[in-house]
């Protein structure tokens, strides 16, 4: 039976053990959103939680950001990445604990898409490269929610993928009446993430539908396809999604830029650990 979409949206937005920003995370998020605190102020606030500090710095130093030198402090991370990206990393460090426990290969796929998103954004000269990389990391957030909080539905989806050889989005729509991109958007809206992050979550399979962040969405769309084609991690089924040629055209990639992206992807994904413990 198809899950009621309104009820499912409410369920997603009310989930308590995903980061709906309790306690310290809520305080940090409000400080970031207020724009009244300096990077040093927010760095000190995060530093009160040593576990969270370690997780954020580990993500900031991971391969998908690709900084040439180590990010040694939270203040430095805030200056290099910006408040919105650090807020996203805080959320990511919490929600992806679920993914790490349940599906290391989905985490690996997400890290791969983040890395390739960063490579593409850098190659085409985007100003907000780090934010686009974070959008790549979060693009399959909805799948984490489905696995963790709708296990019976997820089992039915997995059965359709395996037995009927159905693409995962088609199976999700068959069981739920919607797919993981809707779930990711609902949670991102509850977190008040910026459009540069929410649009790729919702539209990375249909980049032509993105109106508010079309270029970032096109980057994540293409990065998802490249990471899947490379065989890095597991996005839920063994098939590579169809390429939107309009999105590829929007990226303005000539043959040399495409070669640069492929070469950098092969180099970084080989060097990147199979799963990043956060």
Automatic annotation (TrEMBL):
Coiled coil: none annotated. Pfam families: HDOD. PROSITE patterns: HDOD. Residues 18-207 form the HDOD domain. NCBIfam families: HDIG. This is Metal dependent phosphohydrolase. It comes from Desulfarculus baarsii (strain ATCC 33931 / DSM 2075 / LMG 7858 / VKM B-1802 / 2st14).
């Amino acid at each position: 039976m198809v899950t009621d979409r309104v009820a499912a949206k409410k369920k997603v937005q009310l989930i308590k053990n995903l980061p709906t920003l309790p306690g310290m995370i809520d305080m940090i998020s409000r400080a970031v959103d207020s724009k009244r605190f300096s990077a040093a102020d927010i760095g000190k606030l995060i530093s009160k939680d040593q576990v969270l500090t370690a997780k954020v710095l580990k993500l900031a130093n991971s391969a998908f950001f690709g900084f040439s030198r180590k990010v040694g402090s939270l203040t430095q991370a805030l200056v290099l990445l910006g408040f919105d990206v650090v807020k996203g990393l805080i959320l990511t460090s919490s929600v992806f604990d679920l993914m790490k426990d349940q599906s290391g290969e989905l985490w690996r796929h997400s890290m791969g898409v983040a890395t390739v998103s960063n490579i593409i954004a850098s190659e085409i000269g985007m100003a907000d490269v780090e934010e686009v990389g974070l959008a790549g990391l979060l693009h399959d957030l909805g799948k984490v929610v489905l696995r963790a909080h709708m296990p019976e539905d997820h089992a039915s989806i997995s059965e359709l993928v395996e037995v009927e050889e159905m693409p995962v989005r088609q199976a999700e729509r068959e069981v739920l009446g919607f797919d993981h991109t809707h779930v990711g958007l609902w949670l991102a809206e509850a977190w008040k993430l910026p459009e540069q992050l929410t649009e790729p979550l919702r539209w990375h399979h249909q980049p032509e539908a993105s109106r508010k962040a079309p270029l970032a969405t096109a980057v994540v769309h293409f990065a998802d396809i490249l990471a899947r084609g490379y065989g890095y991690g597991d996005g839920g089924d063994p098939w590579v999604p169809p390429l939107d040629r309009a999105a590829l055209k929007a990226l303005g990639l000539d043959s040399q830029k495409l070669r640069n992206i492929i070469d950098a992807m092969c180099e970084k994904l080989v060097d990147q650990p199979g799963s990043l413990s956060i």
